[in-house]
Design goal:
The structure holds two protein chains of two kinds.
Chain A: E1 8-9, E2 14-18, E3 24-28, H1 30-36, E4 39-43, E5 50-51, E6 56-62, E7 66-70, E8 75-80, H2 83-86, H3 90-93, E9 102-106, H4 118-126
Antiparallel strand pairs in A: 1-2, 2-3, 3-9, 4-6, 5-8, 6-7, 8-9
Chain B: E1 2-4, E2 7-9, H1 16-25, E3 28-31, E4 36-41, H2 45-52, E5 64-71, E6 77-87, E7 90-95, H3 100-110, E8 117-120, E9 126-131, H4 135-140, E10 155-160, E11 163-168, E12 177-182, H5 187-196, E13 200-201, H6 204-213, H7 247-252, E14 257-264, E15 274-277, E16 280-290, E17 297-304, E18 313-318, E19 321-328
Parallel strand pairs in B: 3-13
Antiparallel strand pairs in B: 1-2, 3-9, 4-7, 4-8, 5-6, 6-7, 9-12, 10-11, 11-12, 14-17, 14-19, 15-16, 15-18, 16-17, 18-19
Helix pairs in contact in B: 1-6
Classes of the chains: A alpha+beta, B alpha+beta.
Chain lengths: 128, 336
Amino acid sequence: MEYPDNLRYTKTHEWVLLENDGIVTVGITDYAQDALGDVVFVELPDVGEQVDAGEGIAAVESVKTASDIYAPVSGEIVEVNIDLNDQPELLNTEPYGGGWIFRIKPDNPADVEKLLEAPAYQEFAESQ
Amino acid sequence: MAPFAGYDMPIQYTSISAEHLAVREAAGMFDVSHMGEFWIRGAQALEFLQYLTPNDVSKLKVGRAQYSMLPNAEGGLVDDVYVYRTGEQEYLMVVNAANVEKDWAHVQALAGGYAVELENASEDWALIAVQGPKAAEKLQTLCNTDLSATRKNDTFVAEVAGKAARLARTGYTGEDGFEVFIAPADAEAVWQALLEAGVTPCGLGARDTLRLEAGLPLYGHELTDETSPLCTSLAWVVKTHKDFYGKAAMLARSCERRLVGLVLEQGIPREGYKVFAGGEEAGYVTSGTLSPLSRKGIALAYVDAAHAAVDTPLQVEIRGKLYAGKVSKLPFAPLG
């Protein structure tokens, strides 16, 4: 399992990357994709939607189960990964790359710093 | 690993879809040692089983097996079971793992007055189900009996990988295959031999998607203490020309809802989701998944009898939105 050091993490298994333009990109972690198994459908949020931290705004379906994806920070959805409509398996094959799910313009970029760093998330995930 | 009926069981070894397709296209194996086994022996074993179960046990010849059920006094089900006739006055009943204690109490309670001996042998057997169109071919390489001379629902003793076994040409996937009963001490050697013969290990996840695609109900989901088998695709099991425990109560009930198959155009139905017909709530999903074969969402659901005909348009509510689908014939896919 890989947990890149440049990302922040949530206890609901999302990863978060604060980009240079102040936008955050969100996906699910290697641990999450492995636990879900073959991802077959991703329900994306709507661009322009205002979301609150901790709110369920997207969903990932595997053969096994359905799982909600939560907004890691409050803000506005500015982009969603439409490639996932045709290739939901990108969540399994490239969880930290082509498998990103949505981008949020955070109300407060400093909120990202409150999220877990890689070693703390790894310890949390491996204790599950 | 996941807890299941008190056992630690693998959901998947590699991937549910890959394991599922291995069984549909070649051969896979499941460790189902957690299933329960009861011996029923004695001069009145047949009479007792005729009373205990709704299928016609008098039709069961030595060396043959029969799907059946344990009805309760209210016309619902204590469990669904398989009955194997292993001798003139000897039968083996295989029951669901989660129900072993409940079933054993039920069977003992009804046995009063019958000349039968009951034995709970659930700890005496390991059970490996080898399933798929190549199951017979793979198993034959390890087995001293000519499997091509056997047919569906046959049961017989043989050696598998040099170990004493009881085989039955039965399963729970909609495919051809065998269930192999062996001593727990031999289970690892037989599993390893099957692995070396090219049989794919499969977990609980694929077991569930396979049985669902085959339209086979699962106790605790489609079948419960409250549901009548007469409102499901299993009504054929209930033979009304004979008497059995709970018969009058079962026949007195009507089917306000019926168990049907549903196929969605998009989206994946899951257990507990609501079913709608033209905006009105009309039932609920008991099991659902993505069919690894058709790549569509499929479900078993109880729906109002008025909406139970094949091809009736219905909708399933998924995360607050209605997804269109229709009632499907069962099994969902043409199977081997």
